[in-house]
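job 3f2a | input accepted
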Amino acid sequence: CSNNFTKDYLSDGQEYRALLVDDQTAEFHLTLYGGSIYRFGVCSGLDSGNIIFRLKDQDYNELFSNQKHQLASHWDFKVESTLDVIVEANLNQEKVSSGCAVLLVGFKP
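job 3f2a | predicted structure (109 res):
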């Protein structure tokens, strides 16, 4: 997952992990601070495209899904105002049936 980050991004210091089997969903709760650009990177195993991830607000309204972007393994978000979010992660059932979902979060200082 760290290959998704350049030296422009600092890690938030956390590694979000969940062991998933079949269609299980992992939820990670985060606070994103306004005026920042965040990069979310996801992986499971050595191949890209193993994880489907969605960014949602507190009311579970979808803000982003990598399914709409060829299962991109990372994505950048510019946050205008502080926002509590939920990141949901599932395995891409077409590629794997079990594995560890890993989410890394970084930001531009």
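job 3f2a | The two ends are 20 Å apart (CA to CA).
job 3f2a | closed
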